[in-house]
Amino acid sequence: MSKFTPTNHSNDCPVCGDISGKCKAKDDGGQTFILCVTEGGAKKFDIINGYKCIGNKNSRWATFTLDSTSPQKSYEERQQQRRQREAEERKRYQSGLNPNDRQTAHTQLSAQLALHPDDRADLLRRGLSAATVKRFRSVKPWQKLTQAIAPRTPGIGSDGQKVATKYRGYIV
Fold it and tell me: Which of 15, 95, 103, 145 is at 20 to 30 A from 49, Cα to Cα?
C-alpha cells in the first residue's frame, strides 16, 4: 500500500486543480484515490471532473476515485482550467481595496480589538516599550467583529464580520 502524495506544481489535484499540497493522491493496486480538501463538501456518489466521491470526513475532505462511466479530462484540459482559475484569482486580488480604503478598514479593525493581558505581558517580557505595545491587538480564531469591515480587506472573512485566522495571537 502506497502513501498519499500531496499535490504540487507538477502534480495537481485532478478533482479541483489544487497545487498547494492541501489535496493528496495515491495509487493503490491500480486504483487511484484522491483526498480533496477543496471539494470537501461533496456528497457520496457526486461526480466532479470525472471523479466519484466515495466518502466524506466531516465535510473537511472527501475521498474520490476515478469514475469509469464519465469521460476523463486530459492533462491539457486540466492545465487550461488551472490557468483560468489562476487568472480569476489574480483578477480578484487586483480588485482589492485601494491604499486609503485599506487604511480605513485597518483603523476600524484596530478600534474593535483590544490587547489581552497575557499578550501584553508577553510583549513586555520580550523587551518592547510600553508605547510600542499600545499598537498591538490580540486576535482569536475566527473572532467575530462588532461592526462589519469591508470584506475585501486582507485578513477579514468574506462577510466582513470575522477576522480570518485560525490561530490565536496578536497583530500590529
Answer: 95
